[in-house]
Write a structure and sequence with these properties.
By secondary structure, this protein is of the alpha/beta class. The chain has helices at 10-19, 26-36, 51-62, 79-92, 110-118, 127-135, 152-157, 161-168, 186-195, 207-211, 225-235, 248-260, 274-286, 319-326, 347-356, 384-415, and strands spanning 41-44, 72-75, 100-103, 122-125, 146-149, 176-181, 200-203, 213-219, 241-244, 265-268, 291-294, 309-312, 336-342, 361-364, 368-373, 376-381. It folds into 2 domains: 2-203, Rossmann fold; 207-386, Rossmann fold, CATH 3.40.50.300.
Length: 416
Amino acid sequence: MGFQKFNFKEEIMNEIKKVGYTIPTPIQENAIPHIMEGKDVLGLAKTGTGKTATFVLPLLEKLKRGDKNVKALIIAPTRELAEQINSTITQLGNGTSLKNCVIYGGVSSKIQIDNLKKGMDIVVGCPGRLLDLLNQGFLKLNKLEVLVLDEADHMFDMGFLNDIRKIIKQTPVKKQNLLFSATMPVEIKKLVSEILKEPVIIEVEHNEAIKKIEQFLIKVENISKKSQLLDTLEKLSFDSLIIFTKNKHKAKNLSRILESKNYNSVSFQGDLPQSRREKALDGFRKGEYKVLVATDIAARGLDIPQVTHIINYDMPDTVAAFTHRSGRTGRAGKSGVVISFATKEESKIIQEIEKLNKTVFTKTTSRYRLEEKEGYQAVKTIEKKENNFKNKEGNRERNKEGNKEGNKNSQKKYKK
């Protein structure tokens, strides 16, 4: 039956068809009915599972335009995710009379304040700016009907939980609460117990998506990373690639190096003004740039289905971060490739990834070739180092034998 089973209004169904949604994803299938019934929901699902539409569609169906009060608040950890959610609301809600806007820092608040004064039904925002506008009296949540916390674990990682608690204190006690998280650290469990009332818990496994991603591990030394990357890119066939680094400075410099080598590359990191971040992402989505060199701000919440390859230039510090980085590829049922550069010092995180994620790496040395596999180019190793080692060992053995024979002949001559 597809989305018809949810009995959405005709104007919403028309937009669902326009965006090409046909069959609900598991999180949509299981969560939408409960959200429509007004129950609190805890959704445990990673990015790429269709969770944005999971809460957006019921909001569009249930909320009614009538006054200037904010009826639904969606809190997201990053500007990019907030923009993406707001864009989805605008797209799917095109046939409704509901009004929505997005609020975050790093840009002027004037337009955001003007929008709030006009009256918004749905507000999407990041904790810092939301709290600022609440404290200034421009944002009022006393009539809020639905609160959505998206990627709650990421907000915890970014230190937003105190701000979130302050925001929640300014909302009515009686409201519907929806919380989505990929993982459940202790602090998120505590937050769940504080705000959700008898929640329906829906957990969606991501195993099928993980199976479509092939993982490769290249052992490197820090000093040889740049040359290793250039060598990798020279031999790799890719449509769209994200390279992850540990810090902003490295992302910027690495992108410049790739540009100098004639790769269509752009950096994406927190020091960029919002306008340049949006321009970089837009260009990457449209294919103007084939390579996005980014920090972990690109690891979550970005819906760029055409990404074919990921390179972890620097390994992340946590298993969760590795999972989210990998989740940027292999989306929408497609295959993907993740190539990770790892030094000896990073052996511990590799072991944790293998154990907790049950990831099977194809481990390679720093010399490799490309092999066609399942419609995309994968990295395979040529064990030159091992062969060279064997050859050296063989030469040593032959030299030893030669020396022994030489010594024997010398001894015979001496006896004579």
